[in-house]
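Contributing new records

If you add data, match the layout below exactly. Sequence lines come first and carry their own label; structure lines follow with theirs. Keep one chain per record. Anything else will be rejected by the validation script.
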Amino acid sequence: MSVDQISDELRVKDVFHHIDAGFLNRRLALRALPKQLVEIYHEKAEVGSDHMTILRNDHLLVTMLEDLCEHLELPTLFEALEMDEPRLMFRSTERLTPCPEIYDEKRVEHEVLIPFELEKPVKIAYHTTHLVSDTGTMTLAEGGLEGYVESIIGILHNEKNYFRVEPIVIGAPWFDHPRNGDDCKELMWAGQDFGEILVEDIEQFSDSKHVTITNESEWQEVMSKLPEKRVKEAIAGILAEPVKKDWGGESDDHFSASTTIGGRRRTTAFLLKGPSNFREMTLEMCGKRADQIYRLAKTGAEVLVVQHSHLIGDAVRETLRAFAIQPGGRSRKYCIMDGMCTYRVLKAYGKLP
């Protein structure tokens, strides 16, 4: 399900991002919980060894672990890599290389697909005795090259020759959870696509959905010549905010506390890219190791927007998602504002040159 197939009302909602565990190291999960939460888990866990009882208890354990992650404000994997700590717990959603050995070996190791260069690889290693579902095993065997993404809670170890992920939970992003109420009926199909919003979901830009574009040359002729400074001024003008002065160490190009999404005011950070490189946006345009997206995420804004005068490539979208979306109750969204979307917004609000 793509972002535009999710209903307008649901797309902007804050929902609980659960993990449908395919792998669960119960010992590590209980060890991660404080003593009082372990006691609560044992009080709530059902007695029994049948499949459904075990499944319900596992969902309870994972939910409690996700709540702990939320309370501790744990970083994504990409953020943890930037922190350069010897050992750090994280929560994230990533793509992994295929691991067909998972069906035969007691312990396996495969790589996390990082879209930018690191000084050493990131590997995930675990014992297959902790696999808890056939579907989860299949998705790990086939990997992200088949389109699967995995939500992970784990511990990142900075080893001498590589970064090692010790997983506690691995599974599909899952929104069919009691906390999401009646929305579960639609959310259960959203999976890895939930969290992205469209430009017109920002109420101050909503008139852009009524703008029609006849052909690609209409927007490209304008956007290829429109400086980043003019785009920044236009966005600030639409939001009725002053223009932020550029400086070398900035975390964002514009920060707004005035955007409204789903009827609620939210903070939004913008990364803007002008036409000096008028071609599809790649990660190389976002600084070394995509550090501009990292800095955007570090602003703490509830919505992260990457804007470019041309198209925006899949690697940029994937990286933005990896920094923005985490398991648990965090209500962060992200938005891709390419040249066509930018043109529509500027045209809708009379900001074209």
